Amino acid sequence: MNRVLVHGRFGSASGEVPFPMAKPAAIPVAAPEPTASVRRLPRTCAHCGLDLGPDHREQDGPFCCGGCRAVHGLIHGAGLDRYYELRRGESAPSPQLRPDNFAWLDLQLEDPAHRVGEGVVRLRLDLQGVHCAACVWLLEQLFARRAAGRDLRINPALGTVELVWDTRLGSLRDYLAEAEAFGYRFGPAHAKPTPRSRGILVRLAVAAAAAMNVMMFSLSYYFGLAPGEQGPAYVMFGRLSLVLCTVAVGVGGWPFFAAAWRGLRRRVVHLDLPIALGMLLSWSGSVHAYLTAGPENAYFDTVTIFVALMLVGRWLQEWVLERNRNSLLASGGIADLYARRLVDGRLQAVSAAELRTGDEIWIAPGDLVPVAGVPLRREVLVSLDWITGESDAQVRRPGERVPAGAFNAGETGFRLAAVEDFSDSRLHDLLRLDDARGDDADAPRDAWHRIATVYVGVVLLLAATGFVAWLGAGLQRAVAVAVAVLVVTCPCALGLAVPLARELVHVGLRRQGVLLRRNSYLEKALRVRKILFDKTGTLTRGLLALSDDSRRELLALPAAERRVLWNLTGRSGHPVSRCVAAALSLSDTAASGEGAARLDPAADDVREVPGEGLAWERDGVVWRFGRPGFALPTAGNDDTYAGRSVFSRDGAPLASLTLVEEMKPDAVAEVALLQAAGYEVHLLSGDAPARVRAAAAALGLAAGRARGGLSPLAKADAVRELDDRDTLMIGDGLNDSPSFDAAWTAATPAVDRAVLPHKADFYYLGDGVAAVRRSLDAARRLRTVQHGNLVFAGAYNLIAVGLCLSGAVTPVVAAVLMPVSSVTVVAATAARLGAGRSPWTS
Predict the structure, then answer these.
(1) Distance between CA 172 and CA 165 in Å, rounded?
(2) DSSP single-letter state for residue 422
(3) Where do runs of H (alpha helix) occur along 628-769?
């Protein structure tokens, strides 16, 4: 039988998943802290610089979340405070990442292609979390402190790092682990598509160069260059202007022409159609003026500037999306799951896809179970929250099936006999990166396409009307009027102000820890009416805490009994035990007298019964802690202690403790704000129905809007049942992957998990859910600004077109009015959305 050691770059449970001994039906959810501890003075986070808000709690210190608190402490402790001098402005909150076991690194180090000398390797890795020059400096300082580090090159724009490391002088794993403690995340390099912004930038360079030269030639005409003695220069400058303008339109206008043509082939009026038409007609009108009235009457300079400005807007739009995407580790899905197989006594690194029925697998603490199997030799503790959403860890005895996608929630490893091939594993299907929503490069945006359709039709109709009306005055006069109409109505409000507004919204959201992956989300968000939350890890932290009453009951115990309880729970890796032991340890610092957290050598005799509790016989007295039926053997079916964990002495109860799920600090307030704004909030979870109902009650949700016990496919069916192209799904588990495909739009806080961030329309950082409301508010604010721009453009066009049709405006004057109106719209957009602030970047 083959023996396999499996690791996966998908985070780890590390025993963090709740496993309450009490019955889940009676476990309520943590209530918000009392308002007496609320800080009312506005302050900013000491790490990321974000406003803490009016409801920040004094006990949280000057930090917006636990991630920022942890990273600030590490930076200060390591003597790297210059990080804050290099970083200017606000940043996104620091994500709280699960530890990575770096199993993927072994395959990288063993690859001969990466060796550049004896014990020296050169690796190219993907990097997540680098936002500015300060981040680069911090990673370089950590690297420089390692004797094994030879060279480090970071590309924050692409989210990659290239390093040279001497494995004889130190462990690369240690450096990566230290860097990840500061909020960065590494992974194996994946091939990334050529950024669209790069091609647009090349076209922008060509168009800008042409525009500057044409402007120089045009100045000569403005200052009196005329035929005659200056004839050769007059002719040459005109011809050069024609050639350069044609190059600018052909090269710079191609992205707009291509998108417009693709839309027409699909019988859709693409947003780029009026822009492309404006470029062509402006160029045509300028060429006509050149041929009929001479180069001094052409306006090639205006046409080339217009093309360059359109490309600036398009480049901004693509660049900000690519920056957000590159801030996240690329995911290879199945390819990122690794295994080690023992063949003929040798350990062989292989892809988990090679696992077969009958393989013996070693699952280390916190590791992922890649295929279904049965544990060998002893009971094991596994967490199913990633695949089912259940917050309780579960015990599996030898011979009982452990599903693929579970995590080892215990403190020791175990052996598992595979009962299926990886290709038949449920993990195989859930890890696929297929995205039902796909790329949105040419996704139709209904409102803007209706506007574009009407706009193009009206402009063409007005130009034709002007041409016919002035035809009696001569063909040249009629053409001049038509061209003036086409030039003066050039759709800059759509072509430049729209992408600028989007970029400003992206920057504002990014500063608050919200990173959009798809541009279409800002349109989709306007249709959202139903918000569907997963529970564990999304609204809750996935951790346990004592209720206020239980905390007081615990502190009321005599010191001797508290010491016994600490010795019972302090040696257990069970989440309930850890929660109680931590509460007892904290009480030592707050209360006078002898502390409970003192190890008793006799506690080596503590016996743990999986799924039941802990027992310790000491000096003839039997102490127990666990389920009521275990701690109180004579209680029978008494419901007095239902849903509680009981501490007893010789069968007599000393304390009964209620453990609650710890809500994220802003969950209750944010759900209330979303409902007050008119959104229909639902809770969909794979956790026990009773626990889900309790969470819904604490959140202020109606019982009918909370569903528990849902499998991944059942949750997706529930999303489809609710969806009318108006649902926003928020989840963080692999069991949410099918639901993401079913929802109208989706988001996740799970930046350190596989698949989900790459299926989401946006992902967010920090220890809260305010990002959901912020993203929806940003979409509405963008719509308001864009509508204001349209009103301005409409008023301007009404006046300008009227003057053109009256013959008062020539094509040259129209060419001047058009950029003036564009600059006005752009300035107004920047003033309303930019607030005079710019993001700090590297």
Answers:
(1) 7
(2) G
(3) 628-631, 667-676, 689-699, 712-722, 737-742, 756-759
pLDDT of residue 649: 92
Final residue belonging to a domain, choices 737, 755, 778:
778
Residue 633 shares a structural domain with residue 771: no
Q: Is 303 in the same domain as 446? A: yes
| 556 and 620 belong to one structural domain | yes
Looking at the structure, do residues 426 and 295 belong to the same domain, yes or no?
A: no
3-state secondary structure of 514: strand
- Residue 449 CA neighbour count, 13 Å, CB half: 14
- Helix (H) or strand (E) holding 319, with range, is helix 300-326
**486 or 431: which carries more pLDDT confidence?**
486
pLDDT at residue 331 tops 60:
no
Domain count, the chain: 4
- H helix or E strand, kind and range, residue 816: helix 811-834
Enter the tokens of residue 446: 């209904």
* Better-scored residue on pLDDT, 732 or 622: 622
The answer to the question of residue 155 being in a domain is no
Window from 30-39, 358-367, 405-414, 538-547 with minimum mean pLDDT:
30-39
pLDDT band at 746 (very low <50, low <70, confident <90, very high): very high
Res 480: pLDDT: 73
Q: Kindly give the pairing relationship between strand 745-748 and strand 414-418.
A: unpaired
User: Percent of the chain beyond pLDDT 90?
Assistant: 13
Domain final residue pick, 637, 657, 677 = 657
Domain containing residue 529:
506-542+663-778
Q: CB–CB of 163/151 below 8 Å?
A: yes
Residue 813 tokens, joined: 């004057």
The edge-to-edge listing of strands for the beta sheet with 394-396 is 394-396, 380-383, 407-408
Cα-Cα end-to-end distance for the chain:
53
Q: Are the C-beta atoms of residues 682 and 531 closer than 8 Å to each other?
A: yes
522-547: average pLDDT: 87
Same domain for 417 and 475, yes or no, is no
User: What's 569's domain CATH number?
Assistant: 3.40.1110.10
| Of 348, 368, 408, 352, residue with least CA distance to 106 | 348
Pick from 132, 296, 310: which is nearest to 220 by CA?
296
In a domain, 416, yes or no: yes
We report the CATH number of the domain holding residue 719 as 3.40.50.1000
Rounded mean pLDDT, 437-447: 48
DSSP class of residue 59? Answer: G
Say whether both 821 and 740 belong to one domain.
Answer: no
| Rg from Cα positions in the chain | 32
Residue 189 CA, distance from chain mean position: 19
The pTM is what? 0.60
Q: Is the pLDDT of residue 40 over 60?
A: no
User: pLDDT above 70 covers what percent of the chain?
Assistant: 72
Q: Which residues contact 114 (CB under 8 A, 6 or more apart)?
A: 108, 121, 122, 123
φ and ψ at residue 159, rounded to 5 degrees:
70, 45
DSSP states of 135-160? HHHHHHHHHHT-TTEEEEEEETTTTE
Decide if pLDDT at 538 tops 70: yes
Q: How far apart are CA 596 and CA 587, in angstroms?
A: 8
**353 and 298 part of one domain:** no
Where is average pLDDT lowest: 347-356, 653-662, 689-698? 347-356
Verify that 358 and 393 share a domain, yes or no: yes
Would you say residue 191 lies in a domain?
Answer: no
Assigned domain for 135 exists: no
Residue 618 has pLDDT above 80, yes or no: yes
Highest mean pLDDT among 67-71, 111-115, 652-656: 652-656
Quote the CA–CA distance of 364 and 7 in Å, as a whole number: 8
